[in-house]
Design a protein that fits this description.
By secondary structure, the protein is of the alpha+beta class. It is built from 15 helices and 10 strands. The protein folds into 3 domains: 14-116 and 206-315, Methane Monooxygenase Hydroxylase, Chain G, domain 1 (Up-down Bundle), CATH 1.20.58.220; 123-194, Alpha-Beta Plaits (2-Layer Sandwich), CATH 3.30.70.1450; 320-400, Regulator of K+ conductance, C-terminal domain (Alpha-Beta Plaits, 2-Layer Sandwich), CATH 3.30.70. The protein has helices spanning 14-37, 41-68, 72-103, 110-115, 139-142, 144-148, 183-194, 209-238, 241-269, 279-298, 300-303, 310-317, 339-342, 344-348, 390-400; strands spanning 123-127, 151-157, 160-163, 176-180, 322-327, 337-338, 351-356, 368-370, 377-378, 383-388. Helix 3 (72-103) runs antiparallel to helix 10.
Amino acid sequence: MEGDENVEYEPVSVKTVLGEMKDIAELLIDLSYSSVLFESPELAEEVLELEHEMDVLQLQAAMSIVMAGRRPEEAEALAPVFGIVAGAEKISDAAGDIAKVVLEEVGLPSALRESLPDAVETLARATVAPDSPYADRTLGGINLATETGVRVIAMRRDDDHILNPARDTRIRAGDVLFCRGPVDGIERVYETATGEAFDPPAAEPSAIDDLERAVETVVLMKNMSELAVDLAYGSVLFDSPELAEEVRELEVEVDALQSRFEAWALRAAASVDDPVTLRGLLHIAAATEVISDAALEISEGVLRGVGSHPVVAAAVQESDEIIVRATVGPDANLAGTTIGEAEVETRTGMRIVAIRHESAGADERTRYVVSPPPETAIRPGDVLVAKGTRSGADRLADWTD
């Protein structure tokens, strides 16, 4: 945190602060990896600004929690909240470390940018031009999601960030939009907002097998760490030991992947022309592992049977999306089909973000399939992790029983 800013206690709602911390933590993960993917100092600077906001929120949350715990029973109930606050702060610091790979021009192999597009839904930072057709219109009026598949996940207006903007949020010239969606949709939205073509940097695939394996491992670590954060907040919302256990398993998987990554990276160092170019990859891997540790810290109270404080559940519940875990029964409609054949997202409104195969063979690198493609088979006993609406979650439950 900058040393010249004093943070004084204000009577701020713990629920409000925790909700902001959750939203910023999730946005930071998106922005930090995207800053690497697009070699974008602008996105990296946004990460550092949000990291600073998180520092302030962390202090405000700590002060509010201390003021709330006046009796022993209140202290016991609020203890896990400190873990949630600390976890969000760790995610923020890790995202800042990833962004600094771009800002400090730390060496980074081009192969990483070749692999990341498949792991990161494209995110663009677009400044609205004065003559843009979007200027002075609401997000609902533009209807981006329906027309282009692109969602505005956050906005910055001067020095203020607007997280999870609503349909009635009005766009002004000069606003910075953070848009996420498919590449073709992003290209259309970016050009309409800025008047310029969207031009991400080209990347060359690696000719070194060990480096390619190291990069693939980092991408898998990234996917699993993001999933762990989603599940951690889900475990808090539903006071769900099952979701918290998934977080613990993912954290163990990420630790194992990091060991594997280190072996591939050390082997690759002997083959690349300049081993210094691997520094950035090492930084990203270390920060990614911290994110999975932070997710486990967020769910620690649920794992230990302390439960989640109602104020935490209320803060998480205000999120637009929820995440659920469902086990496929032997007679379920989904058993024996694929994600594409079942048209899961179309028919239920839920997007399957991961599958854990209980019967994975010994030769498989991991039991988890993160961001599974449409041809992924669904087997009895599989655990599905899905994002969507509450009504969609009910429909998915009917399909997996």
